[in-house]
Structure formats: C-alpha cells, structure tokens
Amino acid sequence: MDLVIRDARVIDGTGGASYRADVGVDAGRVTAIRREGGGPALTGGRVLDAHGLALAPGFIDMHAHSDLALLRDPDHSAKAAQGVTLEVLGQDGLSYAPVDDATLDAVRRAITGWNGDGGDIDFDWRSVGGYLDRLDRQGIAVNAAYLVPQGTVRMLAMGWEDRPATPAELDRMRQLVAEGMEQGAVGMSSGLTYTPGMYASDAELTELCRVVARYDGYYCPHHRSYGAGALQAYEEMVGLTREAGCALHLAHATMNFGVNKGKAPDLLALLDGALDAGADISLDTYPYTPGCTTLVAMLPSWAGEGGPEAVLARLRDDATAERIRHHLEVTGSDGCHGVPIEWDTIEISGVGEPSLAGHVGRTVEESARLRGEEPWVTARRLLIGDRLGSTILQHVGHEENVRAIMRHRVHTGGSDGILQGAKPHPRAYGTFPHYLGRYARELGVLGLEEAVAHLTSRPAARLRLADRGLVREGYRADLVLFDPDTVAAGSTFEQPRTLPVGIPHVLIDGRFVIEDGVRTDVLAGRSVRRASR
C-alpha cells in the first residue's frame, strides 16, 4: 500500500464507538482496516504513527462561499487546515453559473462583499458544467460540489424585476435548472432575503424544485426570514418541498433576533413532525451566535429592484433614502428579516474602498457616534462610498438556540464562511475544530463520535455520495487526523484568520494536503458532481 496509518483511534463517521486500528491507503482509497489485535500487520511504502490521534473522514462544509476563493487562492488553508475535504458552493441563490455576459457582470457586483469583485479571475465559463470543468482544469485545494443558484437563474431569465414570471420565463428557468443538474450540480439554492431571488413566489419555487427532484437533488433555501417570521418561513419551505416532492436542506438553520430567544424547540418540533410524516429534510448550522452578510442585504427588497446601480441611485436620492431608513429603523425591512434594525448589532467586517477602512471592527452605531451623526447617515455613506461592497457581522444570535439545533438528528455542519474583508467572521477559519473542541470536548453538547458523524457521513448522505463520509474499505481516502485533547479553533473575533490547532494531517484522495500541520503544495481537490441515476 502507499500509506499505512498506524495505531489510530478510528472515529469512522457512523456515530458508533471509536476503535484502535491500522488503516491502509492505496491509489486514493482506503484499502484495509486492521483492528487492534486482528490479523497480520499492514505494510506500506510509508508508515505514519498516529498514536494519540483520531482518524476521521474528511469534514464536509455544507455551506461555503469559496466560489472564487478556490480559484484565487491555491493554498486555501482557511478550509484545508480545518480538515475540510469537500465544500458545497453556489449558496444563497447567487453565484457565477449559469450566466451570460450581462448577468455575470451583475452577479459580480451583487456579491462583491462575499467573494470580491472577481477582477483577478478569468471568467472563462458561462455554464455550470463550464465552472466545474474550470475547477478540475485548474486544480483546487479541496473538493467542491455546486448548487444551481436560483437568484442567478431568475436574473438570467428575467433580470432584476419584482414581478411574477411569465410562462415563457418560467420555462426558461426550468430549463436552466435542468441543464445545471445534468451538468453535475447536486441541487438548487435560494437566497429569499436577497434580490432578485426573493421576488420569486412559492409557486415559482415549487416548479423549480420539481425539476431538482427529477434529478434526485435537494433544495437549499436561505428562507424568507430568520427573524420576525422565522418559524413561518421554515414551515413555508417544508410545505413547498413536500408539494414538489423534493428533498430539503435548510441553510444556516438559526433562530435569531430577540423575538426568537428560546424558540429553537418550536423549530425542532416542526421538523420532527415533518420527518415523522416521511419528509426528507436536513439542515446545517455554524457553531457561533453572530451572523455574517453584506450591509446592502439589510435594505428592503423594493430598494434592490433593477440591480446594484439602481440601488445606488435610490441611496443617492434623499427622499428615497429616507423611505429606506424608515423601513430599516421603524417598519423592519424584509432584508433585515422583518425586525427593526439595531445599529449597535451591525459590525463592519470588511470594505472594498481603502479610505473606509476605519469603519472595520466597529459597529455602525459606534462609527456614527465618533462622527457625531445618526447611524443611518453613516450606513448610507458606507453603502454609497463602498459601492455596496461592505460586509458585516450581525450580533443577533442566542447560544441556547445554537446548542439545541446542533443536537438535532438531521443536523450537519456548515461554515457559511465569507473569506473577504479585513475582519471576517471567525467561522470561516474555525467552524469544524470549534465543533470538536468547544462543543464536543469542553461543553459535551455532542459526543465526539456523534460530532464527527454530523460533519461527515450525514452531509455525505445528503449529497448522495456513495464512497465518502466514512472510514471504510473501498471509500475514498479523504481523511483527517486530529488530537481530540487539543483540537480547537485558533480564529477569534479579534484574530479571525488564525488557523486551528490539533489537526496535523489532512488527506484528499490519499494525498497529504496538510502534513505535520503545514499546508503542502498538493492540489488534490476536484469537482464532485451529482451521480447519475
């Protein structure tokens, strides 16, 4: 064999008890597992002493925003060093395929805060298959699966208009989703608090989900509210996918804002009822309380109609800007989940315009106080001056909700990691070791074997991956070795780009991506495409 991992504590991803074993790897697969005391010793070209380390399947990030980062940054230690061996891209209804030239330009503008403006990327694709081919051709740090982004599809079919789709436009959207699935996408995402995807009716979304279901994919919505209407929004998605006959995966399934304090049991009861009735549902969360998005995402949906340039024009007009302020501060805009915005919870995490860097690390309220002005004046100046590119942390979560949801039987891990900005959310660099160190070892919210199952076999099952997510003979050798006694997130809100500790080795396809705690130059990642039925 190429490699023998000797005397590891194997946490195989099933959730069952760990065991000591030697594990053999050859040609990118796990080829032998010799339990302690069972049979002759394994031999290989290299032997790695894993005494004191746990050996687990590579972690699967079910909600990643590395769509351009994988192309821009071959190192990609933000994820590789966590033990992530597969990321799911195309999240929240907005990404870079399928597109035409005009749509690509608009998408790049719309999600600059997530991924940068892409000026350093050669966008030599227009289709989902073309994007996945580009990942394979270039070589990437970790594996990647892709969701067809419903907002981008709507933009391509009918622009940024807030109106029902015509029958012809709906047919075009069905066709685009089908083509994306045929080219390898694993499902479809939506961002139903982001324009233009949020303009879609439930009937429109149901029709697109019917297409996804034909290909045995899943629907991954960032639904219409995580605030005042959160429970109703979850119920809407459950009902919609039930009608469409489509599997449902709830993105960053949180219960945020003051109105939802202590209400995680209500969500879990809803899900349990649907699961017991036969629904196919899963969810992901990150193990932190604050959220992360863009400042422009807070605006009411009507302000986003027409795209980024139309938004900027409205912000520059005093009368329209006052209407926006009223919706934000008094009514509670749909962009802010129906809750009046609290500027002391909105921390600027990144800007594209260097002259605005002084805002980073401060809340909007704090920046406004330093300037002797009202928070909306500061926010409006940021939106215009940064051309909608500012990212934020939104400090509105509740720890008891986070813990309750992560215990659920269909829970998986997702970082929702935005890698842009001078001070990104620490979840981008710390989600997976934080689960293992903080929530398993220190708090005991999850047992270690259970936590590993949440991060490996459960997401692999959702992605319909027949040979990933377990340490098992014949499975791909996407593996992580970590020290259960020391594994921890190094990233903090003060130092968010600090790498984790206690994860010395990560392998993808049997090749060392992290070796002795150091990123190698190996680019073993490839696109992971929907399996044909």
UniProtKB/TrEMBL annotation:
InterPro entries: Amidohydro_3 (IPR013108), D-aminoacylase_insert_dom_sf (IPR023100), Metal-dep_hydrolase_composite (IPR011059), Metal_Hydrolase (IPR032466), Metallo-dep_Hydrolases_sf (IPR050378). The lineage of its organism: Bacteria, Bacillati, Actinomycetota, Actinomycetes, Kitasatosporales. This is D-aminoacylase. It comes from the Bacteria. It holds the Pfam family Amidohydro_3. It comes from Streptomyces zhihengii. Residues 46-514 form the Amidohydrolase domain.
